[in-house]
Write a structure and sequence with these properties.
binds the ligand N[C@@H](CC=O)C(=O)O, multifunctional enzyme, homoserine dehydrogenase activity, EC 2.7.2.4, VC0802-like, AceGlu_kinase-like_sf, alpha/beta, Carbamate kinase, aspartate kinase activity, elongated, 21% strand, binds 1,4-dihydronicotinamide adenine dinucleotide
Length: 800
């Protein structure tokens, strides 16, 4: 025999009840021996209890009762529910007169929901030709007298159920009321929370069922609540022990007491979705083959009680007093944590019991306050418990580190000695983010990286296109979901928590209002976005002052902008101090040599103790292009400059290149990588601009660029034969030389031979003394730079 159980949503008017009837009919035809346990339909129980409360407060409930009757009668008008409706009317009337009600009355009211439900389903099945029989469990399940949470009396209930089912030879489908029973005086009782599931489990146990199939409105048990974690996935198999842990920690589908009768007889429990017949659901059995973490569950209606005292160390009986006090006040403790110093104990209890707990504990420890053995009993009520079921402590560092990196510091954590369960108490405001971070980390379904791109110009725009284009491949290959949730230029921002798509340019254009950085930070917080990266593809001197704010708010940084690394050394140092403090990273590989792997190489050599003596070369892609082209072609200098601009090699203001500032910045960045505390002013810079072009505005400069032609025609003409012009950077740690200048070199030398926009860096070290280590390649351009920034983002994702 199989027991089927249907929940309230599965029995709601319309699609629910129709589907449930079809399922029962099909199962009765295909599998024969079944019994069906039912909850009250829709929200019937809540509505009945609401009306009861209203009656007790002497408020009017009549309109709601009329609506209730109409709803319950709507599906099958041939049925007469006058007995149930009259019972309810009489009960409410009595309560209204008295202004109060007992738990006994409450059970009588609540039970009508299941009675109506089972009568309706029986009738509908009969109409469909199924030999259905209405079974009122008040006649079968005998309980004690604890109204509202009655305990079934095993022997008598078992005998009643077996005898009742014996009277039917298997061709009858018993449609059984869940949740309700009766005491020895035949007064209606109810079985408490999850009572209908309990009834189904008891029936399965008493009748030695082959399986209990619990029909709900979800596909089964998930790795986390899908409402909180979009990536949550269904678990196919669970063991009873794991289910029990989940039940304790808020998986509402299960309840510990419903599992016990099944464990006793080793009866599998299958959670199924009424509305998705193609899904096999989750099956819970004695033992599953699959290992590892099963699920993350949450308790969010809890409070953390903290009792602290200097005089508690070694005092016998303190914990006993705490638990006795709480026990006497019917306060259940779900998590306990006490350090070996015994100076404090943390307890997690139901939130609605927090005040009672504090008052009773303060009373119990009144004398200890006077003697100063106890100095504080406090409550933190904006907390939630996350429980990782199946978590082995040897692997716990992974989710824990991920939480810390996302600036979520658990208030308390503890584990079960037997079984694998780690629970963390976190601030409720951080729950959503915390559960997503943990889920991403332990299930490795995909790690979501939330990116804000500041600057959507040449480099930023190309980067965004590259991300949109490659994100699916990166997800498939690396399990990393790149989610650009913010794009900002100097005026507007486009925010989308679900990430940009191909049409990001169009969406950005629709943004018309000014924004502040705080808005972006608040947006990330409000949407619980984890693994945050801010990308700076501006050339802004102001935006760098937002870096520290971003770091403090949980962002790692990637930058193509050289300014933060080249302003005064005190800022350079402060930024690194803050990065260390907040455990954040800052990658800027494209600051020197665009996409070339230069900074990483220098860092590695320096870290490994290799003495770098000199770095020399052509550091600028645009100036490389300018002089490589100008030296061999017979065209005006200004025309080549225009080409360099059009190809995206220059800075937004090309004078940053021509003034030598850009190369000087690169030199300074490299010097600082070698721990040399230089300032930009320490660098000797040869400015390639005539004085009158230096101090005018950009527009005027663009109009006057032909003024450059005469100067460079002369310089070119005055060179030795077979020589070419090159703008070079020179950094010597031995002589202290730091200079950038224009030189003329033989065209067959290494520097003389570079082509296009290539940069070349010759690195002389102790090991690379005679022949330098050479890094050469495109030193500018939106595509290579954006690729370099993308590389930094991917490098960061490995650290998050
Ligand atoms: N072009 C290249 O080959 C390379 C460029 N870089 C660096 O990349 C950066 C970007 O260069 P391009 O894309 O050519 O510049 P661009 O002028 O095309 O784009 C800059 C963008 O930044 C935005 N912006 C300015 N201030 C802002 C602020 N406070 N907040 C947000 N957005 C702001 C602008 O509105 C614009 O969208 C520069 O720092 C440059 O030095 C680095 C390596 C190579
Ligand atoms: N304008 C720069 C771009 C890269 O940093 C250059 O020309 O090298």
């Amino acid at each position: 025999m199989k027991i089927l159980k249907f929940g309230g949503k599965s029995l709601a008017n319309g699609k629910g009840i129709k589907t449930a009837i079809q399922i029962i009919k099909d199962k009765a035809q295909q599998e024969g021996n079944i019994a069906v346990v039912l909850s009250a339909r829709g929200n019937a129980t809540d509505e009945l209890l609401e009306m009861l409360e209203k009656a007790a407060r002497k408020e009017t409930y009549h309109e709601q009762l009329t609506a209730f009757k109409a709803y319950q009668s709507q599906t099958d008008r041939s049925l007469d529910f006058s007995e149930e409706f009259t019972t309810l009317e009489n009960l409410f009337q009595g309560v209204s007169l008295l202004g109060d009600y007992s738990e006994k009355i409450k059970d009588q009211v609540a039970s009508q929901g299941e009675i109506i439900s089972a009568k309706l389903v029986t009738n509908l099945l009969k109409k469909e030709g199924v030999n259905a029989h209405y079974t009122d469990t008040r006649k079968l399940i005998k309980t004690d007298d604890v109204f509202g949470n009655a305990r079934p009396l095993d022997v008598i209930s078992r005998r009643n159920v077996i005898n009742h089912f014996k009277s039917y030879n298997g061709t009858t489908v018993n449609i059984v009321t869940g949740f309700i029973g009766s005491n020895q005086n035949n007064e209606t009782t109810t079985l408490g929370r999850n009572g209908s599931n309990y009834t189904a489990a008891l029936l399965a146990n008493f009748l030695d069922a082959e399986e209990l199939q619990n029909y709900t409105h979800v596909d089964g048990i998930f790795t986390a609540n899908p409402d909180l974690v979009a990536d949550a996935r269904k678990i196919a198999e669970l063991s009873f022990n794991e289910a029990n842990e989940l039940a304790t920690f808020g998986a509402h589908i299960l309840h510990a007491k419903t599992i016990v009768p099944l464990i006793e007889k080793n009866i599998p429990l299958r959670i199924l979705n009424t509305f998705n017949s193609s899904d096999n659901g989750t099956v819970i059995t004695q033992k599953t083959n699959t290992k590892g973490i099963k699920s993350i569950s949450v308790l969010d209606t809890v409070a953390l009680i903290n009792l602290e005292g200097r005089g508690l160390l070694g005092r016998v009986g303190v914990d006993a007093r705490i638990f006795r006090t709480l026990g006497e006040n019917e306060i259940n403790v779900s998590i306990i944590s006490q350090g070996s110093s015994e100076r404090g104990i943390g307890l997690v209890i139901d939130a609605d019991k927090a005040s009672k707990a504090i008052v009773s504990l303060e009373k119990e420890f009144e004398n200890d306050f006077y003697t100063k053995d106890v100095n504080k009993i406090s409550v933190i009520d904006d907390v939630a418990v996350i429980s990782i079921v199946g978590q082995d402590l040897s692997e716990f560092h992974k989710p824990y580190n991920a939480l810390i990196k996302n600036q979520i510091v658990p208030i308390l954590f503890n584990n079960t000695v037997s079984g694998k369960n780690v629970s963390l108490v976190v601030k409720k405001s951080q729950l959503h983010k915390a559960i997503n971070v943990i889920h991403g980390q332990i299930f490795g379904i995909s790690k979501k990286i939330n990116i804000a791109v500041f600057g959507k110009g040449l480099v930023g725009g190309t980067l965004l296109d590259q991300i949109v284009h490659s994100k699916t491949a990166i997800l498939d290959k690396n399990n990393i979901k790149l989610n650009v949730f913010a794009i900002a230029d100097s005026q507007h921002v486009y925010l989308d928590k679900n990430g940009i798509a191909d049409d990001w340019k169009f969406e950005f254009q629709q943004q018309k209002t000014a924004y502040t950085l705080q808005q972006i930070i608040d947006y990330a917080k409000a949407h619980h976005l984890e693994n945050l990266i801010a990308v700076d593809t501006t050339a802004s001197k102001d935006f760098i002052h937002d870096y520290i704010s971003l770091v403090k708010n949980g962002f790692d940084l990637v930058s193509a902008n050289k300014i933060a690394n080249t302003v005064e050394y005190s800022f350079y140092q402060e930024l690194r101090t803050q990065l260390q403090k907040y455990q954040k990273n800052y990658l800027y590989e494209t600051n020197v040599g665009a996409g070339l792997p230069l900074i990483d190489t220098i860092k590695l050599l320096h870290k490994s103790g290799e003495k770098i003596k000199k770095i020399r070369g052509v550091f600028s892609g645009s100036l490389s292009y300018l002089f490589n082209t100008y030296s061999v072609e017979d065209i005006p200098f200004s025309m080549v400059l225009k080409q360099a601009e059009e190809k995206g090699f220059t800075e937004p203001d090309a004078r940053e290149d021509l003034s030598g500032n850009d190369v000087a910045r690169k030199l300074l960045i490299l010097a600082r990588e070698l721990d040399l505390k230089h300032e930009l002013s320490d660098i000797t810079i040869q400015n390639l601009l005539p004085a009158h072009l230096q101090a005018i505005n950009l527009q005027l400069f663009k109009k006057s660029i032909t003024d450059l032609d005469q100067t460079y025609t002369l310089i070119k003409a005055n060179q030795k034969e077979h020589h070419v012009l090159r703008y070079v950077g020179d950094l010597s740690t031995e002589t202290g030389i730091l200079e950038v200048k224009l030189i003329s070199v033989p065209s067959n030398s290494a520097l003389g031979q570079i082509k296009g926009s290539d940069s070349i860096f010759e690195i002389y070290t102790e090991a690379y003394a005679a022949q330098p280590l050479v890094i050469q390649g495109a030193g500018a351009g939106a595509a290579v730079t954006a690729r370099g920034v993308f590389g930094d983002i991917l490098r960061l994702t490995e650290k998050l």
